[in-house]
Amino acid sequence: MATLTARLLAFPKSNPFNFNLLVATAKTSAADVVTQTAVERRSLEDLDWRRNASFAVFGLLYLGGFQYWLQVTMFRRWFRGIDKFTELSFFDKLRDGPGLVTAAKQIGFDCFVHLPFMYYPTFYVVKQAVQGDDGARPDLWATHGLSKYVTNFVPDQTAMLSVWFPADIVIFSVPLWLRLPTRHVVSFGWTAYLSFLRGGNDNKS
Question: Using one digit for the tens of pLDDT, what is the confidence trace for 89-101?
Fold first, then answer.
């Protein structure tokens, strides 16, 4: 029993990509279920499972797969020294000037490139593909999804910065294997909010 527990506890560190896929998919789906039941007061029988599927697919492919590739694999190449910096103690991080600059660059990239111009467009296109009535027409998924992205751009980015800018200060400081699990903790609440604001077909502004 002790050995099994030890293996389970070691799994996130020894298999970070697979762990991230599992957590991202489950977390994104669960956040939407919580929003539909607790906020929108739907019964389990009345849940919009098509809407939930759009969040689960987005969680698996983007938050689980692409985001790991971007924020772990590619950030290691683009921002040298992040492994060393994230393993330092809190006070040693504060004394590491180059490391703090690198962390600031990662925060800037996340808030001003990744989230507004990668995350949100992908979210709207995936949502349109799963929830829309465009059939097997990727061109219409993109056209209709990106139209909603443009319409909601300003309020979406304002909300995003209010949450992710302060959260990124922590996320880009923790050990690298904990980066996305930490992000998922914040993302659960963020996804619930996004589900409430943008989950329905009307996509109110």
Answer: 999 999 999 999 9
Mean pLDDT within 115-135: 88
CA distance 117 to 153: 10
CA distance 160 to 58: 17
The answer to whether 20 and 181 have CB atoms below 8 angstroms apart is: yes
Report whether pLDDT(135) > 90: no
Give CA–CA dist 21/64, Å, rounded: 4
- Report whether 172 contacts 103 (CB < 8 A): yes
> Residue 150 and residue 172: Cα distance in Å, rounded?
29
Taking only the tens place, the pLDDT of each residue in 56-78 is 999 999 999 999 999 999 999 99
Spatial contact of 120 and 136, defined as CB atoms under 8 Å apart = no
Per the CB < 8 A criterion, the answer to whether 32 and 195 are in contact is: yes
Rounded to the nearest angstrom, the gap between the alpha carbon of residue 105 and the centroid of all alpha carbons in its chain is 19
Token digits of residue 62: 């983007």
Q: How far apart are CA 12 and CA 48, in angstroms?
A: 31
- CA–chain centroid gap for 2, Å, is 33
* Dihedrals phi, psi of 133, to nearest 5 degrees: -115, 35
Q: How crowded is the C-beta side of 31, counted as CA atoms within 13 Å?
A: 26
- pTM for this entry: 0.82
Mean pLDDT of 36-49: 89
